[in-house]
Amino acid sequence: EIIFTFIDKKDSRYAYSFDSPGFFRNQSGYLLIRRDTAIPFEKQFRKMVSPVILLFALVLFVIAFAITMSLIARSITKSVVVLENATRRIAGGELDLPLAVKGSNEITSLTNSLNKMRNSLKEEERRRSRFIMGVTHDLKTPLALIKAYSEAIEDGITEDPATHASATAIINAKVDQLEGMINNLIEFVRMDTGEWRGQLLSTPIAAFLRRLAPVWETDAELLRHEFRYSILIPENTVVPMDESLVERALGNIINNALRYTPDGSVISFSARIAAENDIQIEIRDNGQGINESDLPYIFDMFYRGTSSRREQGMGLGLAVVKWVVDCHGWSIAASSQKGQGACFNISIRV
Prior knowledge:
The chain has 350 residues and is α+β, with helices and mostly antiparallel strands. The protein is 54% helix and 16% strand. The protein is built from seven helices and nine strands, in the order H-E-E-H-H-H-E-H-E-E-H-E-E-H-E-E. Strand 6 and strand 7 form a beta hairpin. It is elongated and about 155 Å long. The relative contact order is 0.06.
């Protein structure tokens, strides 16, 4: 009590330290220090300890960062090596080699992309094989007939003028058939390689269709069919297109209708503006129609429906149609009921 009373009466500018020296019995002393020259203990401690802690924390951070980066680098390097080896094997033709999806998000994304590329290459290889097999098979038939009749003429079997003329006519017909097949193949390859893409021109579609319709009408009359058409599109409606490809696609649909419908059938062609300013082209016939089992596959390459297998052709007609429509960014749909004809609808976004 005496001590605190003493302090209370003294100047607050000073700090006090009390102690009992020990060698003076029953004696105590105090040390008086000016506050403005004193350094509090916690400041001394912080000044001494803070740099040590900071340095220690920095060292720990550097070590942890180095270890983490090393693990990440090892993981990435391992994944990249695996992908590199897999890519080399795929490039070497091992398209059945699956790639395991492991690693970081970037590695996973790259692996998925490589898997998609592998599957695309695999499908392209299958498509090319089917293409070659189909072409080989379909070209062999007319070639075999040409060879047979040529040998018959060479061996003198067709010395009779009528037989000779018949053999010559068959040879000419098969040559024409081969020429048509080759033209189909050239057109197909042209689309496959994308050569047509630089030939999209803004075309007034109404005038384009009105130019073609009378030609189709004449073809129908020659084959004892009736062709009706209606083109209700404003004259100023312009569509970017490759005219030769679109003409070929529409012609393929109409020629199919002429080939697979009985005499006296009606083929209707209409073009009009539909909802949202889309152009709707409809080609309809009242022939025998398409089998329900064939309908999902009619646009597949080399597919020939049950009603057309005895006809000449390579099964490329509707495949070309679908390819032309897709490449122009349009859409096509087919509907049919057996015995009630078939209908093809092409939708063109203006």
